[in-house]
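Homework help thread (please don't just give me the answer)

Our assignment gives two proteins as sequence + structure token strings and asks us to describe the second one. The first is just a warm-up. Here they are:
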Amino acid sequence: MLLPSLLIIDSPRKGIGRTETADQKLAEEVYRRLKPWVSPSKGEQLITADNDAELGGEKDVSLIRLPEKDSAVPGVPNMGVGTRPRSKSSKNPTMMSSKA
């Protein structure tokens, strides 16, 4: 399978629950299946944005945590998950965005 040398995935576990043992096992399986696709020695990178990732300490894995007080983009506040205001003009109000 052909893949780009840089693959960025936002919220790979978004549809997986957080409380059940089966949820945790499925989440681990997601990452287990992604890791073989990437070889740092060949210049390949996989970047995932995941609120619940408990990675780190593994070979070729770097974990960057952004607490709510910090921002990935200087000058743009980190609003957290689901804290953006809803549009008042919308007839069908939905959450405008959710940070990964």
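The one we have to describe:
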Amino acid sequence: MRYVNPCGPAMAHRLRWSKARPCGEMRAARSGILRSGCFHDAKNDIRLVEEAGVLSVSQHGRSYLALRWKLTEEVVGVVHTAVRFGLTKLWQEGHPRGRHSSHISFSRSHEPASWVFALGLEACPPRLQRITFNKRYLPIFETSRLEWACQKGGSHIFIPPGSLAEALALVREGLKRPVVSG
């Protein structure tokens, strides 16, 4: 498979798909909370496992490889924040279509096209430089004081990672307000 990473040159990736091992069986690769190379949220059946430099995302019987992503404290922090705001689904019907994806999306349900935000190639993985919000939330961001930018072509919304909790609070509050058609 070949794709272009906006953060660097085009790279060819050949990834071997394998079932994720339980967290306890992982080799120690990092210090602190990521020592096992695994993040597991049993309540929401979320499992992120990094093995041989590849991040596997598993939930509710489905798994995919998150290309170019690593299990970092930043990624774990994003998952914790998303869960705190009720965004506990890391795949949606039709996404990813295969066994790998260049991004990790977060939503309230597994329904098609229900994602709220994602960690995509725009973030320059494995670093986390920005978070992408679905363009349907643009009216909420336009009336906020939050720092944000639109993707070229006016599509999705980018925010700095440090603003995730504030952005999710705005989205949650914005969804409570009635929609006024103009």
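TA reply:
I won't write it for you, but here's a hint about the kind of observation we're looking for: Residues 164-176 form the longest helix (13 residues).
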